[in-house]
Amino acid sequence: MKVFLIIVAILAVIIIAVLSLSATVTLVYDKGWHTKVKVLFIEKDIVLSEILSFILFPERKARELAEESNNKKQEATENGDTADVVEATVEENVAERIEDKAQENKAEDNANAPKKPNALKKLWDEEGIVGILSLVSNLVETANSAIITLIRGLHIYSLYVMIIVGGGDAADIARAYGTLCSYYYPVKGLILNGMRVDNYDDYIQPDFISPRTEFEFQLIASINIALLLKVALKAGFIFLKNFINNKKEIKRG
Questions:
Q1: pLDDT at position 128, please?
Q2: Which residues pair with 65 in a beta bridge?
Q3: Which pLDDT band, with edges at 50, 70 and 90, does 134 fall under?
Q4: Residue 200, pLDDT score
Q5: Integer Cα distance of 47 and 24 in angstroms
Q6: Which of these, 103, 98, 141, lies nearest to 245 by C-alpha position?
Q7: pLDDT, greater one: 129 or 243
Q8: Could you give phi then psi for residue 164, rounded to 5 degrees?
Q9: Which residues have a Cβ under 8 Å from the Cβ of 154 and sit 6 or more positions away?
Q10: Mean of the per-residue pLDDT values for the chain?
Q11: Pairwise CA distance, residues 138 & 144, whole Å
Q12: For residue 162, what are the β-bridge partners?
């Protein structure tokens, strides 16, 4: 019994430690986006455009990696650097495997596509427009709940926004500045009133002699695994509850 309690205590400590593990994200825009993530003592620069490109277009990204590795291998061969040749060869093989895997997954999806029923068509056939509207309403409420939970739990250490509205024409600048303020200040109020913010600073002004609009942005925030788990659980609970209630109402109708 004592051994069992010790094991449970150790597991509880591990779970608490994992849930409390947080990542500090630094997002900066200064004539280009720069993103940095820090977990404990590990800090890594991230290029968001490359990540999105890899997720959305894996085959194209794999081809680009293969071409880059091939060029690197040719340069290393010409320079007689064996280590770089080996490294480039490994990168090229990895890129080829990624491209092959993406093509296999695409072929498998195409082969299995006719066998998979269309969920929306099935919902339309069974419940009609009422079922579609209920699903959309459920998804909107679920997303809204997840966003609110994430916003309330996010800890912002520093947030700085600088927007200088320019463009050359005074009338256009005035209209653009007015439109910007109508969107910006409600969002600012939402951030300051609904989130944990340590430092917030902004500079929003029109500049009638500036030829273009200038923009700078810096965000340093922390998010932990416990918050992500809370967001997922709450969103799942709300979606499931609404799904069950909607089914019951449709059957009654």
A1: 66
A2: none
A3: confident
A4: 92
A5: 16
A6: 141
A7: 243
A8: -110, 110
A9: 195, 196, 221, 222, 223, 227
A10: 75
A11: 10
A12: 203, 216
- Cα 104 to its chain centre, rounded Å, is 26
3-state secondary structure the chain: CHHHHHHHHHHHHHHHHHHHCEEEEEEEEECCEEEEEEECCEEEEECHHHHHHHHHCHHHHHHHHHHHHHHHHHHHHHHCCHHHHHHHHHHHHHHHHHHHHHHHHHHHHHHHHHHCCCHHHHHHHHHHHHHHHHHHHHHHHHHHHHHHHHHHHCEEEEEEEEEEECCCCHHHHHHHHHHHHHHHHHHHHHHHHHCEEEEEEEEEEECCCCCCCEEEEEEEEEEEHHHHHHHHHHHHHHHHHHHHHHHHHHHHC
Residue 216 Cα distances to 23, 29, 35, 165, angstroms:
23, 5, 14, 12
**CA angle in degrees (0–180, nearest 5) for 89-94-96:** 95
Percent of the chain exceeding pLDDT 70 equals 62
> At what angle are helices 225-252 and 2-20 packed, to 10 degrees?
90
Distance CA 39, CA 37 (A): 7
Residue whose entry in the numeric block shows the structure tokens 């779970």: 15
**Please, which residues bridge with residue 156 across strands?**
197, 221
Please tell me the predicted confidence (pLDDT) of residue 98.
61
Cα 136 from chain centroid (whole Å): 22
**Contact call for residues 24 and 221 (beta carbons, < 8 A):** yes
Q: Which residues pair with 38 in a beta bridge?
A: 24, 43
Sign of the dihedral defined by the CA atoms of residues 216, 222, 225, 228, in that order: negative
Spatial contact of 12 and 202, defined as CB atoms under 8 Å apart: no
